């Protein structure tokens, strides 16, 4: 069965899953970019640049600890009342928090009240994203025809490179059009303010959706779970824990190749901000390529097999990080980031089909969201902070080792899941 045979309904479903996550990830990525470039001197007291960057990266971690709470809340209602309304609520939560960041005062203007507000809104971003990915993945795979689960499931994943291109592209344009003083004074706020338009587009698409067939069937056959989280831990603990650790490599690869690499490249390697943003922008296409290849391969074999291959790739990326990043040329940095983000496609692309396949429909929203977001804490919550800290004393070699260990953790976690896929 081809995608075309789904007619307008298939296009609407896939478009909604992609557009929604593109908006969400745009919001998330502009924060990561601003944290690497602006938030240190803007929201924290004057100190060494390294300490300001560490403090800025620490605010990123707030969202990761909010995401499991969002997964619990949105997963609860997604499994009880449906996917559509829950996805709309998650989009509003994250979009509203992002727009509010554009109006924050600086540390000079408000003292410690400024970073406190920043952390609060970062929590709102993470809370919203906690319910976003799982719902978007279910929207795609629960509407997929037989044999197309992974290819449908890759569309929410493709929202990641789309959002990244929009975020970094806009920061790159602002860096070219504005002076450094203008950018620091007010230019960085424009991408956050512009999120309002993107959220409006996402809402317009999602409000036209209907419930997924899998959820409608589950509700028709039996009463929804009273407490999906409790049922998840009581009856599906092994796939929840293993699925959580299977996600670790994905987040470690991404945040080292984006947030950490941008901060390290501009502060330690002394490349210009616009130049390094351009390099990252030129490499992100490889992430999209990896996601597409992984989606097709997953349907031809299994998502688990593709994830295992991606973990071995991530170990190799960790070994190559120091020699390629410190080669002395932007071309070598681009080659490394391209390889890393291609690898990201193989450890991220299959997750849209893999994680929902671990759970029955009645607790699928909660299970997928919890595994994805708790795995995000382990793999990415503190990764930029840890990578920045160990690189100040040991350079990039220990950062590469850190990435390799994260990949091995996911590899081990995938082992007991051979027969778990639905």
From TrEMBL:
Its keywords, alphabetically, are: Cell membrane, Membrane, Transmembrane, Transmembrane helix, Transport
Domain Major facilitator superfamily (MFS) profile intervals = 13-422
Chief subcellular site?
Answer: membrane
Q: Please name one Pfam family that this protein belongs to.
A: MFS_1
Task: List the transmembrane segments.
Answer: 54-75, 162-180, 186-207, 241-263, 275-294, 306-324, 336-359, 371-390, 396-417
Keyword Transmembrane: yes or no? yes
Instruction: Give the location in the cell.
Output: Cell membrane
Describe its membrane topology. Answer: Multi-pass membrane protein
Query: What name does UniProt use for this protein?
Result: Metabolite-proton symporter
> What highest taxon heads this organism's lineage?
Bacteria
Q: Which Gene3D superfamilies match?
A: MFS general substrate transporter like domains
């Amino acid at each position: 069965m081809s995608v075309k045979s789904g007619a307008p309904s298939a296009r609407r479903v896939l478009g909604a899953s992609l557009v929604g996550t593109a908006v969400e990830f745009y919001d998330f990525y502009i924060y990561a970019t601003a944290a690497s470039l602006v938030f240190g001197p803007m929201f924290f007291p004057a100190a060494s640049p390294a300490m300001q960057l560490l403090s800025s990266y620490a605010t990123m971690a707030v969202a990761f600890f909010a995401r499991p709470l969002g997964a619990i809340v949105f997963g609860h209602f997604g499994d009880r009342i449906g996917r559509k309304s829950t996805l709309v609520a998650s989009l509003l939560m994250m979009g509203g928090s992002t727009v509010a960041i554009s109006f924050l005062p600086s540390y000079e203007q408000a003292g410690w009240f400024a970073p406190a507000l920043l952390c609060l809104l970062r929590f709102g971003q993470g809370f919203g994203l906690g319910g976003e990915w799982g719902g978007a993945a279910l929207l795609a795979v629960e509407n997929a025809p037989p044999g197309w689960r992974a290819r449908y499931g890759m569309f929410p994943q493709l929202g990641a490179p789309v959002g990244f291109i929009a975020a970094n592209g806009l920061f790159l344009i602002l860096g070219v059009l504005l002076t450094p003083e203008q950018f620091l004074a007010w230019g960085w706020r424009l991408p956050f303010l512009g999120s309002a338009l993107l959220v409006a587009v996402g809402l317009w698409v999602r409000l036209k959706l209907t419930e997924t067939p899998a959820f409608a069937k589950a509700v028709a056959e039996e009463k929804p779970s009273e407490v999906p989280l409790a049922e998840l831990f009581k009856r599906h603990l092994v796939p929840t824990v293993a699925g959580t650790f299977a996600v670790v490599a994905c987040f470690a690869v991404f945040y080292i190749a984006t947030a950490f690499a941008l901060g390290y490249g501009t502060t330690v390697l002394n490349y210009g901000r616009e130049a390094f943003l351009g390099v990252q922008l030129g490499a992100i296409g490889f992430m999209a390529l990896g996601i597409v290849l992984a989606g097709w391969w997953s349907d031809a074999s299994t998502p688990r097999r593709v994830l295992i291959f991606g973990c071995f790739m991530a170990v190799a990326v960790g070994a190559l990080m120091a020699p390629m990043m410190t080669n002395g040329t932007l071309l070598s940095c681009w080659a490394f980031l391209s390889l890393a983000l291609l690898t990201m496609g193989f450890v991220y692309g299959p997750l849209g089909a893999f994680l929902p396949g671990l759970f029955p429909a009645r607790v699928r929203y909660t299970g997928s969201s919890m595994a994805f977001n708790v795995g995000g804490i382990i793999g990415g919550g503190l990764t930029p902070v840890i990578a920045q800290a160990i690189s100040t004393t040991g350079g990039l070699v220990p950062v590469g080792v850190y990435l390799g260990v994260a990949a091995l953790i996911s590899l081990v976690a995938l082992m007991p899941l051979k027969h778990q896929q639905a």
